[in-house]
Amino acid sequence: MNYIVIDLEWNQANGTTEPVPELPFEIIEIGAVKVDEAGRFVGEFNELIRPCVYTTLNYVTSKLIHLRTHELERGKPFKEVYDKLIEWIGEEEYIFCTWGTLDILELQRNIDYHGLKSLSEEPIPYLDAQKLYALIFDEGDHERKSLEHAVDELYIEKDIPFHRAFSDAYYTAKVLNRLKSKDSSKLSYISYDVYMAPKSRSSEIKIVFDNYAKYISRTFDNKVLLFADREVSSTKCYKCRRNLKKKIKWFTMNSRHYYALAYCEEHGYLKGKIRLKRDKEGRLFVVKTTKLISEADAEKLKYKYAHMGKRLKKENREI
Known about the structure:
Layout: E1 2-11, E2 26-35, E3 41-48, H1 59-65, H2 78-89, E4 94-98, H3 103-113, E5 124-128, H4 129-137, H5 147-153, H6 165-183, E6 191-193, E7 205-208, E8 213-216, H7 223-228, H8 230-233, E9 246-252, E10 257-264, E11 268-278, E12 284-292, H9 295-306, H10 309-317
Parallel strand pairs: 1-4, 4-5
Antiparallel strand pairs: 1-2, 2-3, 5-6, 7-8, 8-12, 9-10, 10-11, 11-12
């Protein structure tokens, strides 16, 4: 299997242009490195794209990536570059790798805008090297570090400038190799881009990691139907697979994130978290994580629930 380590640069509206809702960020450069199982760099991809929506570079973008508007005239149309990228990726099995969570999302949004064939009709698995770096070198710290910070901390030679698509893909690939050599087991912590949500129960995502489980549901027409689904509303212990009785039913403080508390006789307290999302057609789905927590953390969740107030209780009566 190959690792397609990819990085994008994109432009957006500035003071003289209005943002296009379907395309808030227009890709202007794609860089990628192909890495084989042994960690060898076996391919490179580097293409500039001529924009057709935001034709003047945003000031912040221009300053960050050291590119000027007139230089984009050398770029090729997005369709031509995308076709070339797919041909370069090839037929061998692969998984994308990025630094952060946005590149696969914005690539699909640009593909959609230009009316091209989708990368996938389902959520796309990928490796988020930024998250893996935090797991392996920062003991799971939620504060995500910059790519340059990781390169410095791992004493990787800086032989090309940062903040262009190819160079950032190149350094991400070098960090990936260090992650693999340090703890290759953490590469099982796969992320999923959910620009395309599951379409049916059979295509829902269920994955168990060492210390938590993740579930990505199919889409529903409304919140009532969504929370009526047993799989969505369940609190199941991912260690012993038992369906657990809830100590606190699902509640929310902002209508987007929901929490629940359950108890497993064998493994202790389990915290559920649901993130409510919409697909591009506006239908609802959830990304649910369940995690075993300490008694002290369970008490914190109980306290939060007890003090959520009248507005919160009214919200919960709706589901």
